[in-house]
Design brief:
The chain has about 325 residues and is α/β, with parallel strands linked by helices. The chain contains eleven helices and 14 strands. Helix 4 runs parallel beside helix 5 and helix 8 packs across helix 9. The N terminus is likely disordered.
Length: about 325
C-alpha cells in the first residue's frame, strides 16, 4: 500500500529564497553600510561525523560564498564545551553573523545570547534552541509530522502486533523527542505493538551498532526498529546483518541520507523521512544576507516540510532531497 501523506516543500523553498532585500540586489554581497570590509560569517555545526551534517555545512558555506561572504565552518563534535569555545572565537574575531546547528536545545542558548549581546545575529538550522528571544530565526524540519508519517507506514508494514525497538538520538536535542513523540502518537494506539527497548544511540552509527547488538541479545525475536536518524538506522541494519536477521526485521529511519535511500531502493530498509538540509542551509544563508542588508522582520521559526520515502516512491529521491 502506498503512503497517502506527503508535504509540499517547493513553495516554502521558493518563498524563503525570494524574500525582499534591503539596500541592494540579491546576490550582490554585503553592503558597505551593513558589513564594511568584514564579510566573515561562521557556520557552526553540531558534528561533521555524519554525512547529513556535512551536506548542511557545505551547502551553507557555498551559498554564503556565492552571496559574497567569507564562510568558515566550525565542528562542535557534539561537545557543548567545543561549541562554547567556537563562539568565544567568533565573538573575539568579530564575525558578522552565525549560521548555527546547536548541540543542545537548552545548553546552547547562552552561546546565542552572548553573540547577540556582541551584535552578531544568529540563525539556527535544523536544530532549535529553547528560547525565542536569542536567535534571529530558526529554520527547522517539521520533525513531529514527519515522524507521524513514519509511524503510519510502520503500522502498514509491521501490522498491529509485534515487538519493536526504538533508538533515540541525543537526549538534549528537541529533534530527538519531537520524532519520538510523533512516532508514538501513532503506534501507541495499537496495544499489540510492544516496544521492548528504547535506548539512546546519540544519532551515531557506531553507537547504534553497539546498542543494537546488545538489544538483540536480550530480544532476539523483534520485528522492527525505529531509528531517530539514518546514521542510527545504518548502524542498526549493520547489526541485524551480522546477526542474520536483516531480512526479517524492518528498519525505519529519519533524515533521507544517501545510503539509506539506496537501501530503500534495494528493499533492505523499509522507509525514512526525507529532510531537506540544502533548503535549510540556503535559507539560513539568505536570511543572514538579508539581515546584514537591513531586513529585520523575520519569523522566529520557519518549518521546512518532511516527506516519507518508501520503496514505492524512492525513485523520486536522492540523498538529502528530491531528484533534480
Amino acid at each position: 500500500m502506498k503512503p497517502t501523506i506527503r508535504w509540499s516543500w517547493v513553495g516554502l523553498a521558493v518563498s524563503v529564497g525570494m524574500l525582499g532585500w534591503t539596500g541592494c540586489k540579491p546576490g550582490s554581497g554585503p553592503t558597505e553600510s551593513a558589513a564594511g570590509d568584514n564579510r566573515r560569517v561562521a557556520v557552526v555545526i553540531s558534528t561533521l561525523n555524519n554525512p547529513w551534517f556535512v551536506v548542511l555545512a557545505e551547502t551553507a558555506r557555498d551559498r554564503l560564498r556565492a552571496l559574497g561572504y567569507e564562510a568558515t565552518v566550525f565542528d562542535s563534535q557534539n561537545d557543548p564545551a567545543k561549541e562554547a569555545a567556537h563562539f568565544d572565537n567568533i565573538i573575539a574575531s568579530r564575525y558578522v553573523a552565525v549560521l548555527f546547528n546547536p548541540t543542545d536545545a537548552d545548553g546552547s542558548i547562552a552561546n546565542v545570547r552572548r553573540a547577540k549581546a556582541a551584535g552578531i545575529p544568529v540563525f539556527c538550522m535544523d536544530r532549535e534552541i529553547n528560547a525565542t528571544d536569542a536567535a534571529v530565526c530558526q529554520i527547522l524540519s517539521d520533525n513531529y509530522s514527519g515522524a507521524v508519517a513514519v509511524g503510519r507506514y510502520f503500522v502498514q508494514v509491521v501490522g498491529s502486533t509485534g515487538k519493536y525497538v526504538e533508538l533515540l538520538g541525543l537526549v538534549g536535542d528537541n529533534n530527538t523527542w519531537n520524532r519520538s513523540k510523533g512516532f508514538h502518537s501513532v503506534v501507541d494506539r495499537y496495544p499489540g505493538l510492544r516496544m521492548v527497548a528504547q535506548q539512546s544511540a546519540d544519532f551515531d552509527r557506531a553507537r547504534a551498532l553497539e546498542v543494537m547488538e546488545a538489544v538483540l541479545q536480550a530480544n532476539p525475536d523483534i520485528d522492527a526498529v525505529f531509528c531517530g536518524n539514518d546514521a542510527m538506522a545504518m548502524g542498526a541494519y549493520q547489526a541485524l546483518v551480522a546477526a542474520g536477521k536483516a531480512e526479517r526485521v524492518k528498519v525505519f529511519g529519519f533524515d533521507g541520507a544517501e545510503d539509506v535511500v539506496r537501501l530503500i531502493g534495494e528493499g533492505k530498509i523499509a522507509a525514512t523521512a526525507m529532510q531537506f538540509p540544502k533548503v535549510m542551509a540556503r535559507t539560513a544563508a539568505e536570511f543572514a544576507d538579508a539581515y546584514l542588508k537591513g531586513k529585520r522582520d523575520f519569523p522566529q521559526k520557519v518549518p521546512v516540510a518532511v516527506e516519507l520515502v518508501t520503496r514505492d516512491n524512492v525513485h523520486e529521491y536522492q540523498g538529502y532531497g528530491r531528484k533534480e
